[in-house]
Amino acid sequence: MKKLLLIALMGIALVPAFGQKSKDNTLTKKETSQHWKLLFDGLTTTGWVNGDGSPVTAAPGGWVIADGALTLKKDAKGGDIYTTDEYGDFEFTADFNIEPGTNTGIKYFCYKYDKGGNLGCEFQIIDDVLGEDNKQPNHLLGSLYDVLPPIEANKKVNPPGKWNTIRIVAKGKNIQHWVNGIKVLEYTRGSKEYLDGVAKSKFSKVEPVFGMVDKGRIQLQDHHGPVAFKNIKVRVL
């Protein structure tokens, strides 16, 4: 009986060890073997640059590191920040937490267009209920901002104040947007649906055609916050 009790207790003790989540802002052994790269270590802004190419420095009034998250507080003026590297075929994931009314986003394929300036395809992050820019379907969370709407029926979003996870998969011209493990948008750059969306958008006059570049940097947008990001990771496909 004592032997059986000891075995049972050992089993209970092992459950937490095997059921533990990995620590924030780290790579699991599986992710390391799959060649994921950590874009934020929870302590520094290494790997991020400002629009002028200078390193991002965490400072009051701009981007700060708070509780292991890269954070833009209300009314802060940190500016848009970019990865140092460009990505073509890639998979990207990040956790975000917003406050009621927040409107921001993550852009990819950021590129300086001949006509239109510095632009990127935006995975829209917004409080769908109270965000100021929530009147159009292609402005809601998970959309390709101003071009294509997400599938609303697929969205399972935690409310402001709770963490959500986004995922972007870019392979050739095929792009996927995911929220909390569920695909909410898939599109093909250059398809009729895509080009029709661009033609009706604020990007209609951009040259060359918006979003058709081969690669670009990833951007965390400063759109007046407040927003916090953690577990920011990318891998080349």
Give the end-to-end Cα distance, rounded to a whole number of Å.
54 Å
What count of domains describes the coordinates?
1
- H/E series: HHEEEEEEEEEEEHEE
- Biggest sheet, in brief? 8 strands, antiparallel
Number of helices: 3
CATH superfamily: Exo-inulinase, domain 1
Helix content: 10-25%
Description:
- 33% of the residues are buried.
- A hairpin with a 2-residue loop joins strand 9 (164-171) and strand 10.
- The chain contains three helices and 13 strands.
- It has one domain (28-39, 79-236): Sandwich (Jelly Rolls).
- The chain has 237 residues and is mostly beta strands.
- The strands form two sheets. Strands 1, 3, 4, 6, 9, 10, 11 and 13 form an eight-stranded antiparallel sheet that branches. Strands 2-5-12-7-8 form a five-stranded antiparallel sheet, with no helix packed on it.
- The radius of gyration is 20 Å and the shape is globular.
- Residues 2-20 have low confidence and may be disordered.
- The longest helix has 18 residues, at 2-19.
- Helices cover 13% and strands 34% of the residues.
